[in-house]
Amino acid sequence: MTIDIRALARKLIILALVLTPFVSIGDVLALFGGSIRSQVIASTPVYLKLVKDVLMVALVALGIAKLARSGRTNVLAIPFLILLLYTLIAASLASDSPTLALAGLRWILPVFVAFFVYEFVDDLLMQRIARTLAALLFVHFGLQVVELFYMSHWYGANVLGLAARVPGFFLIPSTAGFFAVVTLYFVHFYDTSPRQRWAIYCVAPVSVFLTQSGTGLIATAAVAALIALGIRRVWLIIPLGGLAAGVIVPLLPVITGRQADYVTVSGGTRVQIFADLFRHIELVPTAFGYVTNTAVSLFANGGASLRSDVIPTIVDSTYASIVGNLGIGGTVFFAIFCATWAIVVVCSRRLDLYVATAIFSLYGFTTIIFEAYPMNVLLSVCAAYFLRATYVPFWSGRQNAALSLPPRISSRIPV
Hints:
Strand content: under 5%
Number of domains: 1
Order of helices and strands: HHHHHHHHHHHHHHHHHH
């Protein structure tokens, strides 16, 4: 019997999303009971957290099986092979700590998943993902409402005496905001049910507000602005975005109810960490994997086999983690890819591509997206979708294919 690799991979992607409520269930229960000790000390059993990694590895394995069966690949094989070899070299240099190397490989895994699910992602899968995310967000929002009244005040209390920040399925409120924003994106562009879209339009912004996440509020405003402007006036986002940022950013402490120096401390700390990492950047890193949330968690939980000469660093930034984990070589690789991606975005007439790029770019400043589940899975899916539909056709000289919208969704995107 022949296994339908494509169908199996698509089911695994949906399963990965459905498992979202269980990945941090121990941490959520600890928040309810007030027994949470730290954001980096795990309260969820390791085997539950490992499930998502097993699914990611399974997607890579299915991608390899698909390539082996078809005997063909795409033009992205060369750059991805170069990155893979570079990553393995960096991991081997950190081989005096196997745990360190595994933390780094776990961190970069979503990048390779994007390549290996390239053949599996299409409009139909994006629609199924949108519907799955919508169902999850309704449950997530319901849990947030319960948390508002019954969760411990580990994140503080608001003026009404209720929980100040409620993370729903997640331990970190900003991750919950990220989830709501990405769900809003998928449902708007790929869900064909008008009733469900309008329900998400109402629920997603409120869900973000309940997390009191500054990045979440900014990302929600950016998504709304881009959709309102439409593809013909999308260029206005630059001047309007600059003006809005000048007004909104100083008001974030008031809007989120956090301390007056919240923006200065949060933003300034990330800039300082990035500057320190950049100042000590190596051509090829010898501490691959240490600038990851995995390494920080392992260190906090007394993980063995970690080197004693390097302390894991909390950076809360995808860009800083790339600099710290991949050194000059890896940073240059990602910089070139991002530059070529930006060219395709600017030249395209796809509003969904603009919005997806804006969301993940914004969150890259305050979150290590590669480790934020399930957004890392959705990043891989979005990357594969646009690599196949727009990026590869554009650089292969098939501009018409790259710059046109799929008929099924073209009428739904504002122009």
